[in-house]
Each structure stands twice: as C-alpha cells, then as structure tokens.
Amino acid sequence: MASAARPPALSVAMSVYNGERFLAAAIESVLAQSFGDFEFLILDDGSSDATASILRSYERVDARVKPIVRENRGLVASLNELIARAEAPIIARMDADDICRPVRFERQLAFLASYPDHGVVGSWSEDMGEHGEPIFRTGADHPITHEEVLATIAEGQQVICHPAAMYRRDVVRAVGGYHAAFRHCEDYDLWLRLASVTKLGNIPERLLRYRRYSGQVSARHSTEQQFGTAVAQLAWEERQAGRPDPTAKLQRLPAIDDLDALFGRSGVSRQVREQVALGLLYSAQAMRDEGFDLLLRHLRDGGRRDGMWRTVVRLLRFGEPLRAMRLAATLAVSPGASS
Questions:
Q1: How far apart (Å, rounded) are the C-alpha atoms in residues 282 and 287?
Q2: What is the 3-class SS of 137-176, one letter each residue?
Q3: What is the spatial distance between Cα 159 and Cα 141, in angstroms, rounded to a whole number?
Q4: Spatial separation of the C-alpha atoms in residues 335 and 133, rounded to whole Å
Q5: What residue stretches are annotated with the Glycosyltransferase 2-like domain (predicted)?
Q6: Whole-prediction pTM value?
Q7: How many CA atoms lie within 13 A of 168 on its CB side?
Q8: Which region holds residue 56: left if phi is over 0, alpha if psi is between -120 and 50, else beta?
Q9: From CA 318, how far away is CA 283, in angstroms rounded?
Q10: Nearest-5° Cα angle at 80, 146 to 291
Q11: Above pLDDT 90, what percent of the chain?
C-alpha cells in the first residue's frame, strides 16, 4: 500500500473577491518565493469578474495552486474555511492586491523555528500606490518584540500587518479563528485574543509591498473598522482584568448606544463614540458616511473639540460644503470650541 503524501511545510491562505485587477501579480509573488514547499489555497468568494478563470490558469501550470470557488460568504467565513482546509502546521496569510518579497516565507519560517514560543510573526511592510508606485510612509512601523506588541495594544495601535502574517495553525484554531462580529477588523481582534495565549512579533524587514488605493476594504469601511477596533480593545481589557469577554459569542457587534449594557457599566458608549469620531477626522470616506453623524453626536454630547474648525476646512477640501456648514453650525452653538 502506498503511503500517504507528506503534507507541505506551509499553507498559504488567500481569499479574493472580484480581485482580477491585481491578482496575477500577487499570485506570482507567492510562486516566486525562495522557499517552495507550500500549498497555495486561494478561495474565490463568489466573484463576478475573471477571478475564477485566473485561478484555473495558474492551477494548470503549478500544482501548488489549489483554487476553491464557491458562492459569496464574506471574508471572515472565507478565512476560517482556509484555516480548516490547511494541511500544513503553519499558515501564511496573503491578500490578492499585495506583493511578497521573494524571501518572505524563508525569513518568517526561520523565525518560527527559532522561537517556538511565538505563535504569530509578521513583518514590516512597504507601502505602494494603486499602480505599484512607492508611497512615503509617515506612521510608525509595527512593533518587533512581544513586549512591544503588548505596549502597542495598550495604546490602541495596530500590531501586525494582516497580509504579512504567518501563524501556527493549531494555535489559531484553538482560539476559534476569526470572529464574525469583528468584520473589517477581524485580524486585530484575533491578534488581541492570541496575545493572551502565545507570543507575537514582527521581523524588521519590509517583506511585503502593501497596496493602498481607494477601492480597498479598509478605505471603504473605515467607520465600521474603527468601531470594531475600539470594541476589540475593550474586550482585551476585560480579559486582561480577568473578567469575561462579552463579545466572545457575538455574531454582530451591537450599536454604539448599546455598549454600556453589553459591558455592564456606564460611559462605554460615550468613550467608544469619541474614539471612533476622532479617529475618522482625516478619512474622506468616513466623513461622507456615518462617521460624520458620529462626529456630530460626539460634539453635541460635550466631547473633545480639539482641531474641529480645521475639520470644517478639511470637509471643504473633501468636496462636502454642506457637511462643513453643519459642523460649523454645531461648533458655533456650543461655546468654548478651540481651533
């Protein structure tokens, strides 16, 4: 009797939805890795463009490419399905619009082999624009050590670039994978839950080119992303204090006004509203959707007003004169607003 085939050392997990524009470049950057013992699971989450045919064309020329084509179920369900299907003990995440540097997998696997107490390793990233052009970075790089990760969580900042992450499959399965309630910030919630059971770190090399453009999920859902991030951090604080996590069994997060009841104390809703509102001031998309209404509610409740007149000017630059007038009127009827 022939023995069963040896599983690959690594499973690469990519979910894609209508990603034909950048998909080939992302796939080719994975197939060109210096470390080649992997299966490449690519889940087409109900695309209506040429995504499926692109995947089939790569499957024909490289047996490592394993397409999964089905109806749309959303990113969280897709990521959890990829984790369930992964044959390797280690999973590398990848997005369909980014590009891996050729030594990414080699470097991250070497790190996990050297540090068995770490369940997750990411890397620094290099920003690029819609057409692959370099973008100058202004923010801080992700933390390197686990201790720095914990300090960064406490500050409410991002800890690992999701498409640059590599993690141990069974550690992620043990905490229940990605949680549906944290749509559009499912990775941040996962990192915070994993930080309680394993160590996380980042390699200080730019092993991923991260594409920034107006059509990406983080740009289109910035308000929901900021809200989920704020709630995920509150849940982390509850776990750190030894209290039950009230979000653990949720399929959807409640409205902001219901957070006091969820967390069992007053002031939570107002705290989150302020955090989200102030975090969206520079997002043109958020100021065109429900983020603007959150901002007005924050101000009417007596919230912080630092820089709000500058936000009026910013709204004019965003091409939103009516909203600029509404914000100015809100500031004018409440004395004490600062510039």
A1: 8
A2: CCCCCCCCCHHHHHHHHHCCCCCCCHHHCEEEHHHHHHCC
A3: 9
A4: 46
A5: 11-175
A6: 0.90
A7: 19
A8: alpha
A9: 9
A10: 75
A11: 81
Rounded distance between C-alpha atoms, residue 156 and residue 140, angstroms: 13
- Give the pLDDT score at 227: 94
Q: What is the pLDDT of residues 232-260, one digit of tens each?
A: 999 999 999 999 999 999 999 999 999 99
E-strand ranges in the chain read: 10-16, 38-45, 65-70, 90-93, 99-100, 118-128, 166-168, 199-211
Pair 213, 129: CB distance under 8 Å: yes
Residue type present at position 209: R
- In single-letter form, the type of residue at position 84 comes to A
Parallel, antiparallel or unpaired: strands 10-16 and 199-211: unpaired
Rg (CA), the chain: 21
Q: Is residue 338 over pLDDT 50? A: no
Sheet holding 10-16, edge to edge: 65-70, 38-45, 10-16, 90-93, 166-168, 118-128, 199-211, 99-100
Q: Give dist(CA 125, CA 296) in Å, integer.
A: 35
**Antiparallel, parallel or unpaired: β 118-128 and 65-70:** unpaired
CA atoms of 35 and 27, how far apart (whole Å): 15
Domains and CATH numbers, the chain: 10-219 (3.90.550.10), 253-332 (no CATH)
Return the residue matching tokens 């107002």.
Answer: 270
Q: Please give the span between the terminal C-alpha atoms of the chain, in angstroms, as a whole number.
A: 78
Please give the backbone phi and psi of residue 181, each rounded to the nearest 5 degrees, phi first: -65, -25
Q: How far apart are CA 105 and CA 113, in angstroms?
A: 12
Total Cβ atoms within 10 A of residue 254: 15
C-alpha 12/C-alpha 253 separation (Å) is 29
- What's the CA gap between 162 and 165, in Å, rounded? 5
